[in-house]
Amino acid sequence: MKSQPISSWINFGTGLRYLQDAQKGYSIEGTSCVLENIDGFLKKLDKFNLKVTERAAGDLKSFKSDLEEKCARLELEKKDVEKRLTQEEAKQLKEIIKILRITLFAEAKGFSAYVATEKRIDVEKLINNVSSLMAPNIFENLTKIGKYDFEEGCKCIAFERPTAAAFHLLRGTEAELREYYYRKKKILRKDQKSFKSWYTMTTELRNLKSLSIPDSLLNNLDNIRENYRNPTQHPELIYDIEDVQNLFPLCVEIVNRMVSQRVRKKKKVKTP
After folding, report:
1. CB atoms < 10 A from the CB of 88, how many?
2. Tens digits of per-residue pLDDT, 101-144?
3. What span, in angstroms and rounded, lies between the C-alpha atoms of 98 and 81?
4. Taking a C-beta distance cutoff of 8 angstroms, is the pair 28, 71 a contact?
5. Any residues with CB less than 8 A from the CB of 237 and at least 6 apart, and which?
6. Rounded to whole angstroms, how far apart are CA atoms 36 and 7?
7. What pTM does this model have?
């Protein structure tokens, strides 16, 4: 799947309409003239993967070549004649487009466009600017897995795959909890298989009174684990789009708090 602005399709339709309405006296060369519109139309067929219509556009390509030869000949002969469509050329172009439209519309029936509908969370930010949905300097300081999962989770919200979104958001939150846990305990993770469970990490952090970790942070982590992570992981929950939008701020809030400590520590180290 790839993003295409709707304006590209509007321009495509506008160009087709221009060629369909061609009249005697239309300028052949120049901005927004006949050759430019034919060229733009043919390029859009390729861009939009309209392969059948592209193969059926042989007459249009030949007509384009004839016009280019006509303009080149007039240039060579240095005739003081405006490069405009004749009555016969306009008639020929309209007939070519009329026939080509039948193929285009038949092929277009096999294509569907999906539009991301409005959400409580801004769709543009969900797709293209996840960092703006977090506190400043948080997203860029996430772990590699955390960045991946929050970006994927946000896209799943935008395109309304809520249960998949929940998996990614909870996985990203757990990735940041692990980073937080290992940094707090000053443990180097040389063996990736030594990862501890969410419950084990929060329990150990709670029991280490010397770390002075706020109870509110640990309570929130327990809430997410008990009410979201566990029933999602052991398939008990199916989310709708409102459910996952309720989960999103819970995950972001706790990640903001855990990562912000790394960010502040990094700034202190840089201070002369």
Report:
1. 9
2. 999 999 999 888 888 899 999 999 999 999 999 999 999 999 99
3. 29
4. yes
5. 163, 166, 228, 231, 243
6. 18
7. 0.75
